[in-house]
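Complex record, two chains
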Amino acid sequence: MSPAILELVLVTVVASSIPLVIAALGELVTERAGVLNLGVEGMMIMGAALGFAAAYTTGSTIVGALAGVAAGIAMAALFGLLTVALAINQVAAGLALTIFGVGLSGLLGAGFVGLKRDGAPQLNIPGLSDLPFAGKLIFGHDAFVYLAFALVASVAYWLTRTRSGLAMRAIGDNHESAHALGLPVRRTRFLAVLFGGACAGLAGAYLSLAYTPFWAPGMTAGRGWIALALVVFASWRPWRVVLGALLFGGATVLQLHAQAASLGLPGQLLSAAPYLATIVSLMALSIGVRRNGAAPAALGQAFIPPR
Amino acid sequence: MRIDLEPRPARSLAVDVAAPILALAAAILIGGVVVWLLGKSPTRAFSVYFVEPLLEGWSLQELAVKACPLALIAIGLSYCFRANLWNIGAEGQFVMGGLLGGWLAVATHNGAMQGALGGWWIMPAMLALGVIGGALYALVPALLRVWLGVSEILTSLMLVYVAELALDYVARGPLRDPKGFNFPQSVTFDDVARLPFLAEGERLHLGVLFALVALAVSAFVFARTLFGFEVRLVGEAPRAARFAGFSDKRLTLAVFAISGALAGLAGIAEVAGQIGQLQPKISPGYGFTAIIVAFLGRLSPFGILVASLVLALTYIGGEAAQVALKLPNDMTRAFQGVLLMCVLMADVATRYRVRIRLGAAP
């Protein structure tokens, strides 16, 4: 494989890992606060539908991205009302959110199926972007990619180096002690849920605005669920999410290339590869790491303040 | 603004029965608003969705045929959910049951493998394969949880995609009808490989009876047996269950095997009763809808029976609404999601008094 082709492949690997990075990062923050939101897939697909609808109507990618974020936040607010305010079982509420989001996105996006628009523009710095091998890989992506890495860096810094980040982790590990210390458990959790929704919405908008610049029902194809698995795979650490997402992006691209090369393997087996890889990586991780050692201790538990 | 939850001192049966009904009414109201926003008549939609399917004999039978897989899967899921275990991959177990059982029907097509035995054994063997296929497939996430501590939620869901792709592969590849003009489907099953219908020329097949038996047996298990008690104890008080000497690992495997077996049975009943051949897709999302059925039925067998009929109605009404009102099928999915949220909220209202205080927190 010539360096030019290898570079092209690596660029597509980065592109296909970006939605996973963004969505998993949002879910990571939500889970660090102690809330398990299984509705990522639903929030993501709403972001994809409304992001595309807004971008197509206004002709602006930025408006589209903002609409995707808004859709994700709205869905997350619903989830926060159910689980944080009303202390409803988080697994059940997350499933409801996904079922609802997949259905509603199909309803709202029905008028936009089959329409096309130009993808998000790619950064092009004369000179730098034309550097051999690394040029396109570092300087040739669309704005979402750089935004994703900026988000990871800020979240990593915020979680470990700031007072509010520490407070949120405390809430995720032991909500009763945090409450006794006077930390606003439910408000923090609600905000963390909203952040997760914003990220999932942005990840969905990336899919319909940049990755494949059109809207198709069900286009997230389980990426929301893979993002959830990535959080576990990353042991709830932001930079490991990037690593995991690149591995998965790589597996996806490899799978597409294998299908194109027609190796004689059934296409369905290759399509199943990302899902099987998710299971295998979760297994490998739990063999390697002390069981549930990395998970926020209060993950999935509802908090009802004592009166 | 803050929302406070005050535990209610005692729960009454009236509240327990009223809550899901109110939830259903609320979901229908919300659905009506959505239909109105889409520029259609809400009253007409209500009639198409929830009234007209109940007025004709054939659509009542269709209702029972659609409720059958929902009830079978949901009663299985209720074992898991009672034990606070989250099998959300019933869709995959359904598909695997259908695939494995359906394979036998294709393999014995036109008298192959039958010899002097005749074909009487084929249907029971297909059912057994369906049950085994579903149970083994459900045991994968259960074993991973017991051995390695891997979350059963994610693995069971990932396996849904894998099962769907596996079915797609066999229906287009090895089990495709060679004389089928390249249509991606198997041969039509022989009569010996079809579930008998309950009456000549009708749509109701034997699977409906399986569902009723599973509901009755489960009602007995939950109310009268030690195992039923163990399931609930592990779910509600895991520490107490450990002190009592119940093994939560054994229980995890048992409830997953039960729910997978029932989902697999539903799958083979659908393939051998309703469809009559293997196709790339055999389920309109029964495995996921059954999760809603289980919650709407409050995890009780009788509740699940009623809830399966309600959700089956949304499928039939949804099909009718596509034709009569040009409402897309996604309406049904969105409505099911709203319904589950309403059910969960109603459940909170039965356990707590919800007080909403406006203004800043004190």
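Note: The CA atoms of residues 98 and 267 of chain B lie 4 Å apart.
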